[in-house]
Amino acid sequence: MREIAKAHVTATGVPYAQKIQTGNHQLAADEPVSAGGQDAGPSPYGLVLSGLGACTTMTLRMYADKKGWDLGHISVALTLLKDHEGNTHIERVLHCTANLNEEQWQRLLDIASKTPVTKTLATGASISTQRAST
Q1: Beta pairing class for 25-29 and 8-11
Q2: Residue 60 CA neighbour count, 13 Å, CB half
């Protein structure tokens, strides 16, 4: 397998607050106050949505650049929902300030459904967990 990304997460000592190191970047994660955290950073699900949103806008920008399309300012709004049975659904709404025709929009919607992070979330990923050696 080829390595795609790495992250190292460390508890800060403040309940639920975490330091995240990924590549050359430091981030924070926490739970909202309503869940017992201090809201010192995005929640874990907020980070998942952030990754999906970033991948979506990056992929659409790359595609539009190759096609010579002007998207103007592109953004994506994401919401993660869970039903009573625990099923998860993500709503993703794309917005571009450029005046795109229906064919362009349909192509962008199709491309959004095929981004790398979309595929990973939709198909799932195997996760192995082990204890660190001492």
Answers
A1: unpaired
A2: 26
Instruction: Please state which CATH class domain 43-123 belongs to.
Output: alpha beta
**29, 41 in Cβ contact below 8 A?**
yes
| Selection from 83, 99, 103 nearest residue 91 by Cα | 83
Query: Domain-by-domain residue ranges, the chain?
Result: 1-42, 43-123
The token duo for 124 is: 């799932």
pLDDT, tens digit (0-9, with 9 covering 90-100), for 86-131: 999 999 999 999 999 999 999 999 999 999 999 999 999 999 999 9
User: Closest Cα to residue 78, out of 130, 43, 124?
Assistant: 43
pTM value surpassing 0.85:
yes
Contact 87, 80 (CB under 8 A): no
Q: How far apart are CA 32 and CA 43, in angstroms?
A: 7
Residues 108, 102: Cα–Cα separation, whole Å = 10
CA distance 100 to 72: 10
CA–chain centroid gap for 85, Å, is 23
